[in-house]
Amino acid sequence: MPPFYRMGRAGEYLAASWLIRQLDEIYEASAPSRYDFLCTDKEFSYKIQVKTTSSLFEHHSSEWARWDINKKVNKTKKVYSQDEVDIFGFVYLPLNIVEFVPNYKLGKTYQKKIEYLKDVDTLKSLRRSTTIINEIT
């Protein structure tokens, strides 16, 4: 498996380890799906898309991580609709950090300072995301 795919799979497995701690069931989606995992919790279900990075960039003397939220459809980049993905799991592998964010008013990229990521509470971000999705759907 090429290193790029291994990094992506590592991020998916790390995110899945957090999902199974909080939600009732977790199912891996088939290859053509727009999401990586379908999860259930009581009467709700969530489509989770995991995005992984291990690189950073410098901006104004700070280190940042960035994730592309685009998908490729017929060689054209498009954003994920709220029907395709409920929650994104943004994984920063060097720190083994996952931040879950609802697919609500996100742009084409998601970026955070590394200092911010060090303070992320993964379970809290997942609970917050599921609460928001439950309220807007």
In short:
This protein has 137 residues and is α+β, with helices and mostly antiparallel strands. Helix content is 29%, strand content 38%.
**Ends: how far apart?**
38 Å
Overall body shape: globular
Largest sheet, described in full? 5 strands, mixed
Give the helices and strands as they follow along the chain.
HEEEEEEEEEEHH
Decide which structural class fits the backbone.
alpha+beta
Helix content estimate: 25-40%
**Cross-sheet strand order for the largest sheet:** 1-2-3-8-9
Helix count equals: 3
Q: Which stretches of 5+ consecutive residues score pLDDT under 50?
A: none
Mean residue pLDDT: 92
- Beta fraction of the residues? 35-45%
Computed CA radius of gyration, to the nearest angstrom: 15 Å
The total count of strands amounts to: 10
Structure description:
It is a single chain. Helices cover 29% and strands 38% of the residues. The protein has 137 residues and is of the alpha+beta class. A five-stranded mixed β-sheet has the order 1-2-3-8-9. Helix 1 (3-22) packs across helix 3 (122-136). The longest helix has 20 residues, at 3-22. The N and C termini lie far apart (38 Å). The model has no long low-confidence stretch (mean pLDDT 92).
